[in-house]
Amino acid sequence: MALVTLKQLVDDAFQNGYAVGAFNVANMEIIQGALKAAEENRSPLILAVAEAHLGLLDLDVYAPIIIREAERASVPVAVHLDHGQTFGTFVKALRCGFTSVMFDGSTLPFEENVAKTKEIVRLASAVGVSVEAELGHVTGGEGDPSQGVADPTLFTDPEKAQRFVRETGIDALAVAIGNVHGIYRGKPELDIPRLARIRELTGVPLVLHGGSGLSDDDFRRAIANGIAKVNVYTDISQAAMAKIRTAHGLPPNADFSRFMAEVVETIKEAVAEKMRIFGSVGKAK
Length: 285
Prior knowledge:
The chain is α/β, with parallel strands linked by helices. It has one domain (6-278): Aldolase class I (TIM Barrel), CATH 3.20.20.70. Helix content is 46%, strand content 16%. It has an eight-stranded parallel barrel, surrounded by nine helices. A two-stranded parallel ribbon has the order 6-8. Strand 1, helix 2 (28-40) and strand 2 form a beta-alpha-beta unit. Helix 2 crosses helix 10, helix 6 packs parallel to helix 7 (192-202) and helix 9 (234-245) runs antiparallel to helix 10. The longest helix is centred in the C-terminal third of the chain and has 23 residues, at 256-278. It is globular, with a radius of gyration of 18 Å.
């Protein structure tokens, strides 16, 4: 069985200077492509389902598929609830067998974020599930096609991060350092000194949301300064859509199954490229 917790993956990444990619799997093709990339590159993998996507997915139906695929994999895989906000969704994810959850209280006042995060940590730790939380706020929406820009007033405060981690007992902390969900407007600039200070004060694996649009050098500098998990969705979905758009030139008798297999291969290649950048190739244990 290859199903593991988020803590198992990010602790090793944090200690050894690489990051594990977390890929939002909104359909079966992304699951297949991501798993192919992980197995061919011997990379650990995080398969994530965002609460924002649950309007399109029935978790009771979809979760057993993801978990079964993770269990069958020859590399370690965590199944993660991304940007969870409602208590009922956490309960359902835990009952479905997720090995990791993220509570996103980033828009709440600090004390309320601490209190609610602690509640989720108590709930999840009772069944051996890892918890990620966010301090500061990464702007943009999950799957939002509009362009976004980082707001420095919402960046993670290192001293508050130290207190947040100490009081909540979380396993990983998502930070806001110039990253944006979805598509960037202009050129992103990561505040690496801020990130280094957060790492110094918290000592826990850090998470970069809004991984799409960053340069390879951006990723490498972030990973060198404590990022152990990188969330990616936009780059992968855009690669799949580019492949789908080419279908307009296909003849009327084009085979659907063959076309979808090509989409899976395209997703696999896009995921594999991220794994190479993150340094997780060959790290499966």
